[in-house]
Amino acid sequence: MRGQRGNFLRFLLTGGLNTGFGYASYAALVLTGMPLWLAVAGSTLLAIVFNFYSYGGLVFGNTSATVMPRFLVFYLTLGLVNFGLLRLLGMWGLGPLLAQALLLPVLAVLGFLGMRTLVFTAAGKKAG
């Protein structure tokens, strides 16, 4: 899988891996009897770290800790864009589940382009 198309496919597959990890970590924390708020917070923190290294390593070839701040800012920004678009589609009468389903392709493209150009840039592609 070479080129941008292959890179985007790796991005999508890694997104599936990340989703599975996030859910598994959440489930594990819930099953230990942890309070719900702590299970959500803990699994979110674990998922952010996992996502950084999986996207950085498997898709963009850059796991340098120096890009972690950009990753965090981008992830937060993408979440806010998602929320804003959900609200907009809600005002147009779409339910939250349908709206999120319709936004998935848009968010995937935005996520890939943003991570490629703003987070895991060509400069400083040192692993570690």
Commentary on this structure:
The chain has helices spanning 3-31, 36-60, 68-91, 96-119. The chain has 128 residues and is mainly α. It has one domain (3-119).
> Quick one: how many beta strands?
0
Rg, Cα atoms, Å: 16 Å
- Strand residue content: under 5%
> Level of helix content?
over 70%
- What class do helices, strands and sheet pairing give? mainly alpha
In the predicted model, the low-confidence regions spanning at least 5 consecutive residues are: none
Which descriptors would you attach to this protein?
128 residues; mainly alpha; globular
Quick take:
The chain has 128 residues and is an all-alpha fold. It is built from four helices and no strands.
What order do the helices and strands come in, and which of them pair?
Blueprint: H1 3-31, H2 36-60, H3 68-91, H4 96-119
Helix pairs in contact: 1-2, 3-4
